[in-house]
Task: inverse folding
């Protein structure tokens, strides 16, 4: 009866209850959706780091990770691989030969890390082969020529390997991206012109478009207008095992796009055999063995097992290699909880205010209930339940709205194209896919109920302090 | 059988420098099945006396004993429970819960006492029928007239089979016809079910129907007349 009465009491003053419920709905919706966007952003970043960049665990010679001395090799890689095969939970592993060096063209140069890989093995634990930009080549597929290199889009830009031009094909692409006709007309005046680098192209585009058009469509235009001449070459220089500088011309076999500017501008991949040829390393040696696990949650345990099994080597996992990501994944739920709690705390003031009004308006009724024998615990429960119903109704509506919004946006993602450069500079994709776990909704529901209970405490105490004789006399 | 006893009860309100003797040395007793009216001019202490008898307020001195229990010996929580089980209240302004139906208002106190659904339904039906509202069980108070609401309040007061019912000016807000109907119902319940009713009233119709009329002036009992049957 108390529950039924409390629920009916919520709807006594429909307008007031709707206002409170609406404010809770909006607050909870905002919290749920922003958490889903952040969660999706972090999940994408972590997945990209594991799938494309570092995987779960890396083994290297002691000291190699500090100074990348090419002489610090895993000298009997096959024996180490045998030990690795005996550790449960490892889905696959690859060897890499790694040297630091310079990449250069006639006009530009950049510091890079060159990884010698076995392309077929790489495909078993990394997904970089799926990140090759269409029309730029492939992941070493079907090309047995020596000295091929795979580079990132940003490095290609930095080395002026990418050219910019606007032709009918580019205008067609922009039309598909919903760039308005007046902007396309202005860009059409660039037909026939070629730009050697991004800076020159951007400067020219800015002379044609307004500041607003540049801010809104600049990134899309740059993405559509660049082109790459297949078979372009560039020079890689690095130290061999004897610390003698060597250099060689490499032909670009493909350009990858990982949405991580730092990775793209520093990581060059060549076949391991080509790198061994120039560094003088033996086939049994490598600098790193990189492992993929069946279950990411087993990272720490597997790292410990490997460290025990390979005492002469450095065993590092992704949490040590990218501590920022580890911090985010380890504490993200606490951060979401705090964010949600702050929003609910703000909403709680509105609920407290409403419940104080309720107690004030129902003074006589509450006095009557005490007079006829409703004890303090039950009066408190009734006020508390009303507050919980108010917050929970708004909370449920907010969570439902948030869930629908996530479903609607998760399929095609949300494109923060205006902020693409900034996001990609930190390794985050500008195309975000919101996602949220069911456990978040459970946590949210618990927090909403706690908010309802806490919001009712002060008004309920006010109700308990009522003197029934005076309360019944109240007009 | 004596069910209520007041022994030299005083109630003094301290208002700044003035002491107000709202009830001044009242000694009374009530037997089971009485139909008594407490009358007197405004400010004579009728409502205060009713509040003291009902355990809503505590006397400054003296004893109030209900069915052998001295109210002063009960803790606050015990007093609330005691009221629920032993005393029925009818208020001048009906004081029904507006969001509940007539049936729900009547069974509210039975729910607090954890009666079973069958017991509640049976008792509620009996009482609503007794007050002539058997067909309005599902109506909310806003759909009932003042007289009907007060009849629901009487049914609610009787729901938990209290030792006695205290009614503070029950007919004050009713037209004469509704007041007459209400009084007839209460007298019938008093007669048939031997329920004790104690009223405070100004209403001459109530005084006329009461079997015992206690007159208060300045907080003191100035007369206590029992009518012959």
Result:
């Amino acid at each position: 009866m108390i529950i039924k009465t409390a629920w009916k009491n919520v709807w006594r003053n429909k307008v007031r209850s709707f206002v409170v419920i609406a404010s809770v709905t909006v607050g909870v919706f905002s919290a749920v959706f922003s958490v889903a966007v952040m969660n999706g952003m972090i999940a994408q970043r972590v997945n990209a780091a594991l799938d494309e960049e570092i995987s779960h665990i890396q083994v290297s010679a002691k000291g190699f990770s500090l100074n990348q001395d090419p002489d610090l090799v895993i000298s009997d890689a096959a024996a180490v691989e045998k030990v690795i095969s005996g550790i449960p939970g490892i889905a696959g592993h690859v060897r890499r030969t790694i040297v630091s060096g310079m990449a250069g063209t006639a006009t530009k140069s950049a510091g890079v890390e060159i990884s010698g890989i076995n392309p077929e093995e790489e495909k078993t634990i990394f997904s970089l082969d799926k990140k090759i930009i269409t029309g730029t080549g492939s992941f070493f597929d079907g090309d047995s020529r020596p000295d091929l290199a795979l580079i990132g889009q940003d490095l290609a830009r930095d080395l002026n390997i990418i050219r910019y031009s606007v032709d009918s094909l580019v205008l067609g692409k922009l039309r598909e991206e919903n760039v308005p006709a007046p902007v396309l007309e202005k860009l059409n005046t660039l037909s026939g012109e070629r730009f050697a680098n991004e800076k020159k192209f951007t400067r020219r585009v800015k002379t044609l478009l307004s500041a607003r058009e540049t801010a809104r469509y600049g990134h899309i235009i740059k993405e559509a207008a660049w082109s790459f001449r297949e078979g372009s070459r560039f020079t890689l220089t690095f130290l061999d095992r004897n610390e003698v500088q060597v250099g060689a011309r490499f032909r670009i076999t493909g350009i990858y796009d990982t949405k991580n500017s730092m990775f793209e501008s520093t990581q060059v991949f060549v076949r391991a055999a080509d790198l061994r040829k120039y560094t003088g390393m033996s086939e049994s040696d490598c600098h790193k063995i990189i492992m993929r696990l069946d279950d990411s949650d087993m990272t720490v345990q597997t790292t410990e097992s490997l460290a025990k099994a390979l005492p002469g080597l450095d065993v590092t996992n992704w949490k040590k290699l990218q501590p920022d990501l580890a911090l985010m994944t380890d504490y993200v739920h606490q951060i979401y909880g705090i964010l949600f709690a702050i929003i609910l705390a703000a909403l709680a003031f509105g609920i407290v205010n409403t419940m104080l009004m309720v107690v004030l308006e129902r003074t006589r009724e509450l006095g009557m209930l005490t007079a006829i024998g409703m004890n303090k615990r039950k009066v408190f429960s009734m006020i508390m339940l009303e507050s919980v119903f108010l917050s929970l109704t708004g909370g449920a509506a907010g969570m439902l709205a948030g869930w629908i919004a996530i479903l609607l946006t998760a399929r095609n993602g949300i494109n923060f194209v205006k902020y693409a450069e900034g996001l990609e500079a930190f390794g985050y994709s500008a195309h975000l896919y919101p996602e949220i776990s069911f456990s978040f909704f459970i946590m949210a529901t618990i927090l909403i109920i706690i908010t309802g209970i806490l919001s009712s405490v002060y008004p309920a105490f006010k109700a308990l302090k009522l003197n029934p004789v005076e309360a019944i006399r109240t007009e | 059988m004596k069910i209520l006893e007041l022994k030299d009860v005083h109630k003094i309100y301290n208002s700044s420098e003035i002491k107000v003797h709202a009830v001044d040395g009242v000694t009374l007793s009530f037997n089971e099945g009485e139909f008594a009216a407490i009358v007197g001019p405004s400010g004579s202490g009728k409502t205060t006396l009713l509040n003291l008898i009902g355990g809503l307020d505590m006397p400054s001195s003296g004893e109030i004993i209900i069915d052998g229990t001295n109210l002063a010996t009960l803790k606050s929580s015990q007093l609330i429970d005691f009221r629920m089980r032993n005393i029925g209240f009818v208020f001048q302004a009906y004081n029904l819960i507006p969001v509940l139906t007539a049936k729900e208002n009547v069974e509210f106190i039975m729910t607090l006492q954890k009666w079973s659904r069958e017991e509640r339904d049976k008792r509620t039906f009996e009482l609503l029928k007794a007050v002539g509202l058997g067909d309005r069980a599902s109506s909310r108070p806003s759909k009932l007239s003042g007289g009907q609401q007060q009849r629901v309040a009487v049914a609610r007061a009787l729901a938990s089979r209290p030792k006695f019912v205290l009614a503070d000016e029950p007919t004050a807000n009713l037209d004469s016809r509704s007041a007459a109907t209400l009084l007839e119902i209460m007298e019938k319940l008093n007669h048939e079910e031997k329920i004790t009713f104690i009223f405070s009233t100004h209403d001459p119709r109530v005084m006329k129907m009461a079997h015992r009329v206690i007159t208060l002036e300045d907080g003191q009992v100035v007369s206590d007349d029992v009518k012959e049957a």
About this structure: The longest strand of chain A covers residues 90-104. The mean pLDDT of chain A is 88. The first helix of chain A runs from residue 2 to 10.
